[in-house]
Automatic annotation (TrEMBL):
Protein name: indole-3-glycerol-phosphate synthase
CDD domains the record matches: IGPS (cd00331)
Catalyzed reactions: 1-(2-carboxyphenylamino)-1-deoxy-D-ribulose 5-phosphate + H(+) = (1S,2R)-1-C-(indol-3-yl)glycerol 3-phosphate + CO2 + H2O
Highest rank taxon of the organism: Bacteria
Coiled-coil residue spans: none
InterPro entries for this protein: Aldolase_TIM, Indole-3-glycerol_P_synth, Indole-3-glycerol_P_synth_dom, Indole-3-GlycerolPSynthase_CS, RibuloseP-bd_barrel
Entry's EC annotation: 4.1.1.48
UniProt organism field: Psychroflexus aurantiacus
Length: 256
């Protein structure tokens, strides 16, 4: 079976080449948001008790429908009210039902730093992230060679975007120099098998550079697990499905 990550990366490369034709970088640079100052996700996580990065996620390759009817503006405001340190917005349409417009709307209705959670493969996407209002971007260690990760990281930093560098295995930390990393994310989900192992993430803690803020990502399904991860040394958590399902349940109750 072709790994989903490889499939997504191939798709992204094709998508970016089409977008470059329809919306050149020069046009992205003229977006009003392009020159906005960055809201620091790093500072917000560092100064928050549980460093919660709450994700907007309608569906996913592993779960299909999560909350298909979700309203991004309502959810952004509720994440801010519940005390999240930041918001992650999946901007990939095909696999997650998200969009850059979701990101733009989220940014416009709350004061949270916004992470563009997508599969970044090309410098063009850094300009796009900035134009639509992202404060931080994701770089996935397993998705690209070191040279490409560095190229994207350098440009992101030039544009004032912070970097969440995601790893699944401890050795992957070596793929990008610490000077380019604002937050290190340990993905508890294996992107080939979709298996989630929170303990494997916890076991990696002693191997991570002490100076970096550490985020536990994926598969977190209750508040007890959030507490345990923070108690054991993570500075924050990135949670999607659990919060989005809660929001769907609240919506159903309100509609009755
Ligand atoms: O969520 C998936 O099924 C998925 C599959 C393949 C690549 C990436 C995937 N997720 C992206 C994410 O990073 C998660 O949405 C994020 O860590 C939150 O996870 P969760 O709390 O389990 O929704």
């Amino acid at each position: 079976m072709k790994r989903i990550l490889e499939e997504i990366i191939t798709y992204q490369q094709l998508l970016v080449s089409l977008k470059k034709e329809t919306m050149p970088v020069e046009v992205l640079k003229s977006f009003p948001g392009f020159s906005n100052p960055t809201r620091s996700l790093k500072q917000s996580v560092a100064s928050s008790e549980q460093g919660i990065i709450a994700e907007f996620k309608r569906r996913s390759p592993s779960k299909e429908a999560i909350n298909l009817k979700a309203d991004v503006m309502e959810i952004a405001q509720s994440y801010e009210q519940m005390g999240a340190a930041g918001m992650s917005v999946l901007t990939n349409q095909r696999y997650f039902g998200g969009s850059l417009e979701d990101l733009q709307l989220a940014k416009s209705v709350c004061n949270l730093p916004i992470l563009r959670k997508d599969f970044m493969v090309d410098p063009y996407q850094m300009y796009e992230a900035k134009a639509y209002g992202a404060d931080a971007i994701l770089l996935i260690a397993n998705a690209l060679p070191s040279e490409k990760l560095e190229e994207l990281a350098v440009l992101a930093q030039e544009l004032g975007l912070e970097i969440l560098f995601e790893i699944h295995e401890a050795e992957e930390i070596e793929k990008l120099a610490s000077k380019h990393i604002d937050l290190i994310g340990v993905n508890n989900r294996n992107l080939s098998t979709f298996e989630v192992d929170i303990q494997q993430g916890l076991d990696m803690l002693p191997h991570l550079p002490s100076e970096l803020l550490k985020i536990s990502e994926s598969g977190i399904q209750d508040t007890e697990t959030i507490g345990k991860l923070i108690e054991q040394g993570f500075n924050g958590v990135l949670v999607g499905e659990f919060f989005m399902k809660q929001k769907a349940a609240e919506q159903n109750t309100n509609n009755r």
